[in-house]
Amino acid sequence: MHKVLLSNVSCDGWFRDAATSSFWIRIYTSLLVPHDKFVVSLQSAIKELALEQPVAISYGVQEGINVPHFQHYMYAGKNGMTVLEFASEQRALKKSNFVFIATPMAIDGKPGNPLRTRHRLDVAASVMRLHAGVNFMRDIVFEGEVTALDDKFVAPGEEIKMPQTPEGPFINEKNWGHIGEIAKSLTALSEESRRRIELALEYFDKAQQQEDAMFYYWTALEMLCGGRDKTIRLKLKECYELDNVDVVDRATGFGFISQWRHGFFNQGLRPSLSSDVRRYIQLLFLDLLRHELHLPWVGYLAAIQQAPGYNLEDIGLADNRVSAQR
Q1: What are 52-63's pLDDT values in tens digits?
Q2: pTM above 0.85, yes or no
Q3: Cis peptide before 34 (omega within 30 of 0)
Q4: CA dihedral sign of residues 304, 306, 311, 313
């Protein structure tokens, strides 16, 4: 990476000590404008957005930009232990139109927050694309942290999440039988019901792959149950044969999930979901899925509430880690 990429952006005021500072940069391709007209057409374009921290924006036609391409994958070693393998290579970008957006990361020795930093660029990119269109900032060809002093690549653009115990694997004969039951039941549904439930499963799978997953969890629950809070509570009441919907929140912890949904959609609050709570939501969804498919009740939620080793205090239930140590 070279600072020439930000030659139209003044970054001098971001840091006092460049040696202990860095910035986060994202490079987008820009389509459908001839090279000789791209920069000329953007002479009056905005160069900085004053967000929580400044976001610098520059535009250029570049050739042969060398950007690092980073990959990693996990696999099980001979003894079952997780092995994390890294690979990195340089990739030369073809001559093209590019939009560069950058924002401070580490400032004078104080580490930055990758989530907040990337969020800031997401906000900036969203505002830009809302006005100029998706083709103006089409594909991200590079994203990562770069040192302010010597323009060296610091770290991969995405946080690596190591496996946790509540994520499994849970290998047993009952699971295989239940999976087969669900697949068979899906094929027997009306086309409308099958589409709705399969889309709910697709969105729930997205939630299991996202760190910031609240949108996908909640959307999947609404799709599965065919409605919002009240409908989901009614389905939970039916599923667990509870006396009334007022008992649902206390018995299942759903009230906390509903509050997180409210905070997320109405106040922009992102809940931090532990791996224990994520597993709990998975099993709640699974019980509701079997209920929607009219399959026999299994009671996944009741099982995890009693299982040793799980801390469910975040949703108003028990912390069973102590019992697991006895």
Answers
A1: 899 999 999 988
A2: no
A3: no
A4: positive
